[in-house]
Amino acid sequence: MTHHAAEVKHVHVLGAGRMGQGIALAFAFAGLRVTLIDFKEREARARDAFASAALGEIGRQLQTQVDFGRIDAQQAADALARVEVLDRTGCEAVLGDCEVVFEAVPELMAAKEAAFAWLCARVSSTATIASTTSTFLVTDLQKVVTHPQRLINAHWLNPAHLIPLVEISRSSITDDSVIARLKDLLRRVGKVPVECAPSAGYIVPRIQALVMNEAARMVEEGVASAHDIDMAVRASACASRSSGCSNSSTGAAATFCITRRTISRRKSARASSRPPSSRGIWMKGATAFATAGASTTTRTWRCPRM
User: Fold this and answer.
1) pLDDT tens, 212-226?
2) Which residues, in sequence order, are bridge partners of residue 38?
3) What is the pLDDT of residues 32-66, one digit of tens each?
4) What domains can you pick out in the chain, each with its CATH number?
């Protein structure tokens, strides 16, 4: 791999859903051009509508940061101008010189295989491919790409443009220069990369599983109500912020904000044929805790950087 992170000026993101949009926003705000690729096949009118909606959502996220006073209107406009949304046919001309691409298609192996086959046929053998999967091991995904030593898992936490952490998972055949390059690129845009082995659950999801199950256990044992446990963690996170710790994502915001959508998604994941992970354990605690009366509304994420 010949490119250095400092030379990367243009990042590609394959998959234009919520995660893809968040990753695009993170790089665009840091000054890099981003091509956000809508991989789903659509009719012409639907393609245009989706591209407009995706840019609109990115614009709304930027406006939220303006409203909070973290950036001004010109910074928001400049960041949005760095993002282009293209469909899978319209982007082929710009993929030839692609240096780094983040794959963010739905968490289904068939979708991953289709995305990687399409991508590998269009990017150079030196392009770094980073999958944002939270489900599949890097050792499994390397089997479905050409030049597997350039593929790595880079697990972003939602919302990707606000949470600093990115969990990187490599295999024994992953090129060391790919690791160094990706870490440098992530640090360059204000992210905090950590490295872990190819193991289901990465780092933070496994810790969250333990916390959620302990919260559910405390409710079952009558130690405290779900509401009071939820409030205790939220209040302690606020205390950390007031004492100078701006990253409260390890507290209530990341661990105890369980929406009904999340619960439904985790149930579906557990019932599917995906590889074993900590999701089933996490879901048991999450469901019990939410059912017992903890808040199921989504908090506003607070960003330490924007």
Assistant:
1) 899 999 999 999 999
2) 87
3) 999 999 999 899 899 999 999 999 999 999 999 99
4) 5-196 (3.40.50.720), 204-291 (no CATH)
The residues with which 33 forms a beta bridge, in sequence order, are: 10
DSSP helix/strand/coil, 73: helix
* Token duo for residue 20: 């893809």
CB 287 within 8 A of CB 269: no
The per-residue pLDDT for 243 is 40
Confidence of residue 96 (pLDDT cuts 50, 70, 90): confident
If 0-12 CB within 10 Å is exposed, 13-18 middle and 19+ buried, where does residue 304 land? middle
Long-range contacts of 68-77 (CB under 8 A, 24+ apart): 68/303, 70/303, 70/306, 71/29, 71/306, 75/29
Q: Tell which residue, 20, 16, 10, 19, has the closest CA to residue 88.
A: 16
Q: Are 196 and 202 in contact (CB under 8 A)?
A: yes
First CA to last CA across the chain, in angstroms? Answer: 31
What is the pLDDT at residue 92? Answer: 80
Where would I find the H helices in 86-221? Answer: 109-120, 138-141, 176-188, 204-220
Axis-axis angle for helices 226-242, 204-220 (nearest 10): 130
What is the pLDDT averaged over residues 68-91?
A: 94
Residue 150, both tokens? 């350039």
Query: Does residue 193 have a cis peptide bond before it, meaning omega lies within 30 degrees of 0?
Result: no
- Non-local (6+) Cβ contacts of 48 within 8 A are none
d(CA 16, CA 49) in angstroms, rounded, equals 13
